[in-house]
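Q: My labmate handed me this sequence with no annotations at all. I'd like to see what the chain might look like in three dimensions before we decide whether it's worth expressing. Could you predict it?
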Amino acid sequence: MKTILTLLISLNLSLVSCQTKKPNAKQDAIINAKAIEVPLQNDLAKAYFASGCFWCVEAVYESVNGVTEVINGYAGGYTENPTYQLSNTGRTGHAEAVEVLYDPTIVSFSTLLEVYFGSQDVTQIDGQGPDNGSQYRSIIFYQNQDQKDEIINKIKQLTKELNVNIAAEVYPFLKFWKGEDYHQNYERLHPNNSYIRNISIPRLRKFQRKFKHLLK
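A: Here is what I predict for the chain of 216 residues:
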């Protein structure tokens, strides 16, 4: 399904891109809202990221030492109870996102940011690789002012070092909607899926080669 949807979205990329650039009062309200800080649970913290297909992002973060679990879902939009089918229309405001549960005594939010930027094309707008559309855009969600400042500073640093425009958007965390059960642990459960073989695994391997010191 992912491959078929990707092809359909790619064919309509110009239309989707125009739609995502229109002013949206609902999206503006979300961007300007007060962030919600998620308390520690069983000594584990949570962080939220969007960076293209959540199957790919899940696999990357689950390979990082200190990360105990990654859940696929949706965030950043204004539609209640989003689904995979609805998010793929590009009209919900949501992006495919992951909830990362991690032990802050082993891995820091700063390191998770390094993983985030080191596992994607930081310049690609509204997508990663062959996946295009607002539902695949890159977003970093902050839960407090310290995280927001850290994200902004990191983006400024990368912009200067790489001399490029960083595509990642910065949103306050408001709510994470868990995705459908069949999307969880997708790469591990479906290693022979053509999308997994041709897109997810190469992206994971590329990250692992660069960040061997962070792997489990």
